[in-house]
Structures are given as C-alpha cells and as structure tokens.
Structure prediction request, 350 residues.
Amino acid sequence: MDPMVQLLKQLRQHLLTGVSFAIPFIACGGILIASAIAFAPMTPSGPDFSHAPKLKLILDIGTTAFTLMLPVLAGYISYSVAGKPGLVPGFVGGYLSGQINAGFLGAILAGLLAGYVVQLLKKLPVPKYLRPVMPILIIPILSAGFIGVVMLRVLGIPIAHLMSAANGALKSMSTGNSVVLAMLLGAMIAFDMGGPINKTAFFFGAAMIREGDYRIMGACAAAICTPPLGMGLATLIRKKLWSHEEQDAGLAGLAMGMIGITEGAIPFAAADPVRVIPCIVLGSMVASVIAMLGGVGDHAPHGGPIVLPVVDQRLIYVIAILAGTAVTALAINIVKTLAQNRAKTMERAA
Prediction:
C-alpha cells in the first residue's frame, strides 16, 4: 500500500477514535443546554435564566459536559496514536485549546501532536532503572509540558491576533457589499463550529445589536444552526452512507441545531474534516445570504429556530434555515457517495 495512503488511513482512525469518545459528551451537553434554553424565556438580550434556577442548573451541567468535550477529543486522539502515555498531554492540550479559544480544530491538532511527541519520547534510550517510571511519570511530564508551551505560547498569540484582525475586517466590510459580508459571516460561523473564527463572527453580530443593526446577527443566526441540522438531515435521508454511531450523532445534531448550537456538527467534522467542513460552510453561506437579502433581523445574540420570537422577517428566516440545511445535507451526501464509489473502483482495480 502507498505510504501516503497508509498515513491518511491511520490519521482517520486516530480522529475516529477521538470522536467516538467525544460524541457522548457532545450529545449530553448539547441536549441539556438545548433543553434549558428551550424552556427559558427568550428576551432581546438572549435566554433569561434569572428567574429559572432549575433551568440554570440544567444549563450548568450541560455546559460542564460540553466543556469536557475538547479534552476528551484530544486525549483519545493522542491515546490512539501513542497508547496510555498519550492521555495526559492529550487532555492537557484539549483543555488548553478551549482556554485559548482554538476550538475543536485546535483540539485535533493538540491530540495528534501530543500522540506523536509521546511516540518520540518512547523511543529515547534510557537507563534500565528509569524504564518503569517512563510511561507514568517522565513521559507525561515532558509531553504535557511541551504541549502546554505550544498551546499557550505558540498557538495562543496568533489566534488572538487573528481574532482581532478578523473583527477589524468585518467592521470595515459592514458598510460595503452586504452579500459578500453575509457570505463571509456564514463561512466563519460554520468553519470551526464554536472556535475562534466562529466566535469572531458571532461577537461581531452581537456588538452590532448594541448599535441598532440587527441584520448582522440575523445572518449569523440563520448560519449558526444549519451545520448540525444539515448533518442530521443527511443521516436521515441516506442512512446507508452513515454508521449507527453517526446516525445517533445526527439525531443529537438535529436537537442542538433547533436551539442554535453549531457544535452539534463537530463529531462529523472531526471525523472527516476535508469533506464535511466545505459542505457545512456552503450551507451556512446560503442561509446567511438569504437572511441578509431578506432583511432578517435578530434582536437576541443567539441563533436557530429558538430565537424566532425575537426575529424580524420570520418567514424569510425560516426559509433561510431550511435552504441552508438542505444544501448542507445534499452536498455532504453527494460528496460521501462519490468518495465511496471511488474507493470501490480503486478496490476493484487493485
């Protein structure tokens, strides 16, 4: 087998291992958060939990489960690469990915880097008396220290600068071509699903609410929910393309999408980023452009059908979400079908 093909297969297996452990955290956290938001009063400033302590408790529990998703994803990617010694640096890297707002892409990078660093450390020649403590003491300390420095001192600074530059670029575009701005906002919202690029677009929309321009948040709100809704719909209309685990993740994604939790699409993007991310970006761009052209305004810093009561041009908003969801589902199913057909053709040729 071609070494490059073998490497890609190994990388995919590492990603799938991390995703399989992270899915329950995403589903649990997302559904608890969605349930709390669904029953909380929606105000122009977002869901109001001030007079709903039980819902706030559910929200906090869900947020905790959701927060653990990045360490678990990175930890078990690293575990797949390097075994048990990879868990500590993987968990540390995944946690720090959340702290520096690097999102799931940062967690994937941290998990792979941690795993390969541990692999290198395992090959170091050491005295016999040190070998018993290498996997439980020396390797975890050295690898976690290295990953910590990379995440905090190497990745953290450029990510902060990127967010600042992107926010400035969005502000400069807000007085220009609305369609181009909507396309950019939709792409940013979907690209890293809760990561720094997503957050930059979201906080820009929230800031514009305070300035009285609700169209920016309207475009973001329509784009926010289409990745999980689109992936969920894809698993329903072409079940044979998806594993049982992915179908379960699709159902959880539908629930999260209804409440505007973009992270519901992370299990799919983490397992197959090359195919999934372009498809969800396309769907969110379609939703965002339709919302912008239709004059949709969102008075709350949130997205998805849950904010319908505080949205201007509600019919257009619904149409935008449906269109973006359909485009995402059709695009990913077509891409996966072509990939499977290509793989079968290559197997026959071999």
About this structure: The longest strand covers residues 42-43. The two ends are 10 Å apart (CA to CA). Residues 134-173 form the longest helix (40 residues). Residues 174-350 form one domain.
